[in-house]
Amino acid sequence: MSRITNPLRNKVAIVAAHATMQGKHPDRSAWDLGVEAYRGALASSGIAPARIDGLLTQTANGGQMDPSRFGQMVGLDPKVTGALTYGTAFFSIAYAAALISSGQASVVACVYATNQRSHGFANPADQIPANERHGFFSAAGFAALGYQRYLHEYGRTADVDKLGAVAISQRAFARLNPIAFRRDPMSWDDYLQDRWIAWPLRRSDICLITDGGVALILADANLAADLVDQPVHLLGLGRQDALGGLARGDNLLIPQMRATATQLYERTGLGPGDVDNLQIQDAHASVILHTLENYGFCGAGEALDFIQDGRIGPGGPLPVNSGGGQLSEGYMVGWLHQVEAFRQLRGEAGERQTSNCRIAQFCATGGAREYSGSLLYGTGAVAEMLL
Amino acid sequence: MSGAALADYAAPHEAALREGRIVMQRCDDCGVITYPAGPCCHACLSPALTWAEMSGRGTLWAYVIYHHAFHPAFADKLPYNVALVRLEEGPQMIAGITGASNDELRNGMALVARFEPQPDGSRLLKFRPDTDSQG
Ligand SMILES: [Zn+2]
After folding, report:
1. Does residue B23 sit in the same domain as residue B75?
2. Which CATH number covers residue B74?
3. Which of residues 3-32 of A touch B (CB under 8 A)?
4. Of chain A's two ends, which shows fewer C-beta atoms within 10 Å, N or C?
5. At A211, is the secondary structure helix, strand, or coil?
6. Do A135 and B77 touch (CB under 8 A)?
7. Contacts of residue A151 in chain B, CB cutoff 8 Å?
8. Is B116 touching A (CB cutoff 8 A)?
């Protein structure tokens, strides 16, 4: 009988995380924001810069810092310096975990920063050539097609407005988060009066663009306890891509997430019922529905009901994007979600703290629905229990 | 092929669209249609591909109604629809639906290509309800 092993069991932990204020920083460069985040991660953890032997930045999706220049700027001579020219936070963390678990580096700083709100937003290259001549613009187009198809498949078109529970819950969380950009209250009336951008998505269902920076420090799990008091352990990782895109097959509802979930849950022996705090990279509110269903937090076609009545909001049984997410906190392509998971698992999330938070999950997908990745994080006690 | 840019692979498809036809690469070895265009069949990797004309018939898989103009050229068209259309040969294409109001759009409705003349003399692919179909 074959036994499923977890290649990342007890290998990697997050030992520091810091994010800048989100919003408009018109007078600051991405470098400046990145340095602030990096400095904050070192200061809050007490980790000496000399311990950093790996440095990763992201130069895609708004990320604007060349890693060699950044390392020079902050006086680092790491063993390994790298950047991903594609992807989002999930990819950089997976890269850092690979460096650490293969022994190439032991303490890796990962830094993302952008000032694209103040200084312009470069759209990623066309996924399918020439769709813009038909007026098909923005990643919101993909998400709107997916939500429309979802409403049709489950006979819920009359319930289109129920998606508002996502934006409203996340705004309620953002109001408890001092670094969040949008902290004004949002009621159901506010949501329903908001304008359509690409029906069935309203403006409130689509992520913000913000300036800001995030730094994470990941370390060999065996060093982590010597570096900081409360490391947050990476319990496992899953990943499945689907590259047919819009042109081929039925990828609108991101079905490859189901394979990602199977990998992650089989490797860790955990399941959706074990997750205390859920972080979903929310380019659009509708990805919350696809994620909840594909990972098994609720059944297929049930998510619009599952998210009602505060169930995913402050004090609810399954807090989702408890920092406010990309709809309200800020748009750092998934990086802020790691900071929030780190704070929640250390009990440092203030008024928005999830009670008895022991396990957090992060789920990501791409704007064109081409990939899915997920991470499970746990406290030291959980990591020990899984040994 | 100059530098084998992706645009070069798609050039025959694009040129045909401007003339009012949908052509895609059909594999001589396994018959699968490859779209977007490339140097080989995506199913069997054969380089033996022949440009074949599609029927233009398909069904509406999903659609969006834009209420915001991301480009000034669409400001006077709001609200306008964009659909993902599944061709009867398999591939899915993005295009607008004409000949039906936005309220009349239904997933699964039968569609047929309708090319609209453009000011520059070229044509733009749209789809309209296929009233001859039982779909
Ligand atoms: Zn073939």
Report:
1. no
2. 2.40.50
3. none
4. N
5. strand
6. yes
7. none
8. no
* pLDDT tens for the 387 residues of chain A, in order: 557 899 999 999 999 999 999 999 999 999 999 999 999 999 999 999 999 999 999 998 888 899 999 999 999 999 999 998 888 999 999 999 999 999 999 999 999 999 999 987 555 443 444 688 899 987 899 999 999 999 999 999 999 999 999 999 999 999 999 999 999 999 999 999 999 999 999 999 999 999 999 999 999 999 999 999 999 999 999 999 999 888 887 899 999 999 999 999 999 999 999 999 999 999 999 999 999 999 999 999 999 999 999 999 999 999 999 999 999 999 999 999 999 999 999 999 999 999 999 999 999 997 778 899 999 999 999 999 998
Task: Provide the domain count of chain B.
Answer: 2
Distances (CA, A) of A251 to A149, A222, A311, B92: 11, 40, 28, 11
**Is the Cβ of A144 closer than 8 Å to some Cβ of chain B?**
yes
- Going by C-alpha positions, the residue among A226, A266, A254, A294 that lies closest to residue A45 is A226
* Domain stop point among B13, B33, B53: B53
Q: What is the ipTM of this complex?
A: 0.94
How close is the Cα of B37 to the center of ligand 1, in Å?
13
Q: Which domains, from first to last, does chain A contain?
A: 12-119+208-385 (3.40.47.10)
Give the H or E element holding residue A13. Answer: strand A12-19
Query: Residue A137's closest CA among B37, B67, B6?
Result: B67
Is A133 at the interface with chain B, CB within 8 A? yes
Q: Which of residues 263-302 of A touch B (CB under 8 A)?
A: none
Task: Judge if B16 and B40 occupy the same domain.
Answer: yes
Q: Is residue B134 part of a domain?
A: no
- Quick one: closest CA in B to A203, which residue? B68
Domain assignment present for residue B110? The answer is yes
Q: Are residues B25 and B77 in the same domain?
A: no
B67 and B23 in a common domain: no
- The arrangement of strands across the sheet holding A359-365 comes to A80-84, A54-58, A107-114, A212-220, A12-19, A232-241, A371-378, A359-365, A277-280
Residue B31 is part of which domain span?
3-53
- Ion ligand 1 — residues with CB < 5 Å: B 27, 29-30, 32, 41, 43-44, 46
